[in-house]
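Table S2 (text version). Query chain:
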Amino acid sequence: MTHKIDVDILNRLLEHERFPHFCTQIRNYFEGNMAGGYMSRNVLLDYGETSLLSLKDNSDVNKSELKKDVDLIQTSKIGENEADIEKLKNSILSILRDIKKEFPNKRDSEAATAKAVESIASDLSEIAPREVTEENVADSIMRYIERVVPMDAKTRSRMRRFVLFAMKIFGKKHRAED
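Corresponding structure-token output:
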């Protein structure tokens, strides 16, 4: 209502099949439901690290391999919310990728616009350039629009008036910029 939110994007997010699961993940993150499990994992890793370090004075142990194993354990630990944040990030990115597949491609609309302009220009090519009027252009635009969007006579009349109005406004603006 305040036009601060793109309603189309919001609707696409809300309607996505995995969005409810994403909301559950957010709730779990806010409530810290999973953090205890991740921290328990770190406790197990600490135990393994302590056990390995107790072997450092043993002459039969390869010190280089022991250091690599201890380093691996230390880098395997995760922060309290790190896993939740990664899961949230992966979920929202997956949802966004899905939505992007459905989203209109700007290049497609540019190509469609170019096709429309070519069609209108081709339609007007039968008229000498000096004889082209706003009415001719409006009629050509309307012929193109009617191929794409069928309409009754009343709607066609209103649309034609709108096209003429838009051309006049654009023409005035264009002349003012010259």
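Notes on Table S2: The mean pLDDT is 85. The CA atoms of residues 91 and 99 lie 12 Å apart.
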